[in-house]
Specification:
mainly alpha; 5 helices
């Protein structure tokens, strides 16, 4: 799973390794969707609907995190970044092919026979 995706955000809030009831998972899914679509500022609206007010520093921190998230997404979407990812993938696949050539197939159906 890629970092920064909605599912990654969901499992960050509500890990699969710990039990959570259906209502908790639904709430975490809703919060993840809010953050993915509208950023952290949307959390403050949820808190306000529950009767809690966010402070100035909370609002500033949410805005800064949202800004950083957008800057990072823009950086990752540049052509240079895409070429770098493709290059690293090719290198990794080449290394995997070299390992497979030297060691042979170490796992697969019928190998233990």
């Amino acid at each position: 799973m890629k970092r920064g995706t909605a599912c990654c955000g969901l499992w960050g809030i509500c890990p699969k390794t710990k039990f959570a009831g259906a209502n908790v998972v639904k709430l975490c899914a809703a919060l993840t969707c809010l953050r993915f679509n509208n950023g952290l500022k949307s959390y403050s609206r949820v808190l306000e609907a529950m009767g809690m007010l966010c402070g100035t520093y909370t609002a500033l921190a949410c805005s800064e995190q949202d800004r950083l998230r957008i800057v990072e997404a823009d950086r990752k979407s540049t052509e240079k970044s895409k070429k770098g990812r493709k290059r690293r993938r090719r290198v990794r696949k080449g290394l995997e092919d070299d390992i497979k050539a030297t060691e042979g197939t170490v796992y697969g159906p019928g190998i233990a026979d």
